[in-house]
Each structure stands twice: as C-alpha cells, then as structure tokens.
C-alpha cells in the first residue's frame, strides 16, 4: 500500500488507477455498490470517488458512503461536491461533514443544473456560480486536497477550447491540485487538452476519465449530454453490432483498453474508471493492462 500523498503519486511515472461510483437510489443499489467496492479494493486504487447527486437523499448517501469508505476500507476516498441548489453555508457544512469523517480529498464541481447538463445554469441566491469559488472555500476552511473537472472536448458552455483551458488553469492557480476529465473516446482529444492547459502555464496533473461502452444507448446519451461527441471511428465499430449486446460489451472493453494503452503511452498520470457501480468491465480492462505491465 502506497502512503504517499495523492499529488506525489500523480506526479510519479507510474500511472495511478482510480474508480468512480455514484450514490445508489435505494438500499438494494447500495448493497450492490458495497459488493463492487469489495471486489475492486484488492486492486489497491490510488483513490476512489463518489459523485454528488442532484437531490437531498442522494447527497446524504454520497457523504455517508464516502465517509464509510474512509472509515472501513484501506482506500482513499475523494468526495465530489457541487454548487447546485445550495447556499454557501450549506456547501461549507458538507465540506465540514467530509472533514469530520476523515475525507480530506474533494472534487470541486459546479454541477449541472436540475434540468440536466444542457439546461441553463440556475444560481442559488446565497450560493456560488463557479467551481473555482468552491476550490477557494475548501482552502479557506483548510485541510483539503482539491481536484476539479476537465473537458477534453471543452465544457459545453465554454466559448472556445482555449477559454475552457484557461478556466482549468485558473482553478489550478486557485489551489486545485489535480483534475479529472469528462468521458471522451479519442486519446488525441485528451492530449490536446493537456497541451492547451500547459500553454496556459499550468502543470496540473489531468487524469483521464474512462467509461467503456457496455451499453451503446446509455453511453451515447451520456456522451451527448456531456458535450462529448461519439467519433465516427467508434460508431463504425459499434453500430454494425449494436443489436448484439455481448458483442457490444466485448468491443467496448477492447476499445477502452486500447484507449488506456494510448493514454499511458502518451504520459497520462493515471486512469480514472467510471464504474457505474459494477466491477466486471473495469476488472477486465485492469487485468489486461496489468498483464502487459502497464499498471
Ligand atoms: P465550472 O468550472 O464552474 O465551469 C462551468 C462553466 O463556466 C464552464 O463553461 C466554464 O468555462 C465557465 N467558467 C468557469 N469559471 C469561469 C470564470 N471564472 N469566468 C467565466 N467563465 C467561467 N456533476 C454533478 O452534478 N455531480 C458530480 O459528482 C459530478 N462529477 C463530475 C466528475 C467529473 C470528473 C467531471 C468531468 C464532471 C462531473 N460533473 C458532476 C459534471 C459537472 O458538474 C458539469 O460538467 C458542470 O456543468 C461543470 O462543472 P465545472 O466544475 O467544470 O464548472
């Protein structure tokens, strides 16, 4: 087990591996999540993260699950936190809950408006408007290592890719130590983001987010919502077999594994798997990469 700080591990040559979960809707979903977490813990991830939901009960689950990971597992949890429908005081309170539970890493996000990623942002009257303000608040409270979001194809609201990269560099300047990307399908989109951010003078480690295509309709919808385009070369591989679910899954895992190889070869600091609370696809990709000595 590696006791160095997250930043030290991200700055190391050896790629980190991390897993992302989401807060389940009900107790059955939570049971499944704990099974998944137990199956992935032996891979000794550098960190695991839990996304922050849109509503009260799912938010409580996020904090509770993240706290329990800190208390009952050997893994380092990163708690996501957003600005959606919360006052500055409420946001500070969640940071305090994380701190009290021993969760010292947070992913500071604006969050998507209740109408979804494509809807207009709705500011809370006593709240904050941009993730950078949450980075600053976490540092005011103190004791946190803070990460932020990054967008290989640009955030949907950003006027252009350079402005998008400038925002990430600003967040790094405000004290964000690392970034994790939105899902994407082409390694070149990731490397071009890294180049743009370096051109802005920031050396913040940017961890690529990996989501294998296991269910074509689901990933296509998530990609569209997040502003990531499903490239023609990926569509050409999946569409002809779209009705054959096992074939889609196998192809999706092969494509994601190749993406991981390309990312590591190009110097990505780690791989962050969006697991959707299931372990098997992530394990298959991880085993393949480990067999090749890449992770
Ligand atoms: P911001 O950094 O605030 O940026 C939002 C927009 O404002 C961008 O267009 C940006 O260019 C612009 N902007 C930012 N700062 C400035 C400024 N100072 N001046 C002018 N323009 C500015 N959502 C959830 O609800 N829960 C989650 O758990 C969650 N986890 C995520 C994890 C990852 C790895 C990623 C990549 C995204 C995640 N999201 C999550 C989605 C995210 O909240 C949305 O993509 C959201 O729309 C943008 O969040 P942000 O933190 O990048 O916002």
UniProtKB/TrEMBL annotation:
The lineage of its organism: Bacteria, Bacillati, Actinomycetota, Actinomycetes, Propionibacteriales. Its cofactor is FAD. It holds the Pfam family MTHFR. It catalyses: (6S)-5-methyl-5,6,7,8-tetrahydrofolate + NAD(+) = (6R)-5,10-methylene-5,6,7,8-tetrahydrofolate + NADH + H(+). Gene3D superfamilies: 3.20.20.220. Keywords: Amino-acid biosynthesis, FAD, Flavoprotein, Methionine biosynthesis, NAD, Oxidoreductase. The gene is metF. Belongs to the methylenetetrahydrofolate reductase family. InterPro entries: FAD-linked_oxidoreductase-like, Mehydrof_redctse-like, MTHF_reductase_bac. SUPFAM superfamilies: FAD-linked oxidoreductase. It is an enzyme of class 1 (oxidoreductase). This is Methylenetetrahydrofolate reductase. Pathway: Amino-acid biosynthesis; L-methionine biosynthesis via de novo pathway; One-carbon metabolism; tetrahydrofolate interconversion.
């Amino acid at each position: 087990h590696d006791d160095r700080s997250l930043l030290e591990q991200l700055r190391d040559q050896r790629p980190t591996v991390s897993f992302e979960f989401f807060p389940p809707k009900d107790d059955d979903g939570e049971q499944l999540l704990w099974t998944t977490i137990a199956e992935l813990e032996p891979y000794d991830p550098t960190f695991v993260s839990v996304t922050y939901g849109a509503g009260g009960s799912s938010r409580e689950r996020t904090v509770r699950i993240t706290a329990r990971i800190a208390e009952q597992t050997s893994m380092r949890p990163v708690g996501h936190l957003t600005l959606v429908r919360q006052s500055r005081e409420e946001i500070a309170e969640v940071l305090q809950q994380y701190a009290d539970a021993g969760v010292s890493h947070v992913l500071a996000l604006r969050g998507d408006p209740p109408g979804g990623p494509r809807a207009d942002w709705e500011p809370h009257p006593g709240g904050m408007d941009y993730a950078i303000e949450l980075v600053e608040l976490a540092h005011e409270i103190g004791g946190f290592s803070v990460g932020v979001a990054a967008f290989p194809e640009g955030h949907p609201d950003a006027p252009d890719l350079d402005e998008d990269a400038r925002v990430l560099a600003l967040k790094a300047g405000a004290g964000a130590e690392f970034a994790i990307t939105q899902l994407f399908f082409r390694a070149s989109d990731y490397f071009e983001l890294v180049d743009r951010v370096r051109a802005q003078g920031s050396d913040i480690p940017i961890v690529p987010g990996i989501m294998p295509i296991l269910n074509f309709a689901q990933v296509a919808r998530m990609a569209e919502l997040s502003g990531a385009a499903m490239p023609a070369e990926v569509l050409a591989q999946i569409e002809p077999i779209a009705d054959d679910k096992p074939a889609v899954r196998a192809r999706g895992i092969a494509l994601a594994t190749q993406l991981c190889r390309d990312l590591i070869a190009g110097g990505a600091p780690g791989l962050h798997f969006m697991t959707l609370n299931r372990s098997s696809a992530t394990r298959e990709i991880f085993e393949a990469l480990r067999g090749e000595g890449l992770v």
